[in-house]
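The instructor's notes for this session suggest beginning with a concrete chain rather than abstract definitions. Hand out the sequence below and ask the class to guess, before any prediction is shown, which regions might be ordered.
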Amino acid sequence: MVPLIIAPTGGHLGAGQDALAVQRTFANARSVEFDALLLAGAPVPGADAYGARDAKAGEPSGPGAAIDPRVLLMVSEAFRHGKAIGGWGGVETALQAAGITDAAAGVVLAGDGVSVLEQVTQLLGEHRVWDRFPAAV
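After discussion, reveal the predicted structure:
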């Protein structure tokens, strides 16, 4: 696996020896680049995040208003593409805003990133979460 860290802005997360370099930002990352997503919380909209561009749409409201819209787009695309999604730290809010239930196939939530990573790694063995799409004739 080659993990990529995505954050609101470039630079580093953390400080000192433990700082992690950001490889993508919310503005330049798309779900097609990834086989799975691990979310560490539900990020608030960044200063450069734009909501609806239609003046009649008004200000965003509801559960998604407090989540960066670029993250919601990435999560909803990954879900529709059958990719595994894992999270911790209040990620349920972002999933709900994207229209995804935490009981959906291939969605892994836990209290810490280690157990989420282990479960998502197992899901990656199947390449996609095909159980998310029931067969129909």
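Then share the key points. Residues 69-80 form the longest helix (12 residues). Strands lie at 6-7, 12-13, 20-21, 24-25, 36-40, 84-88, 107-109.
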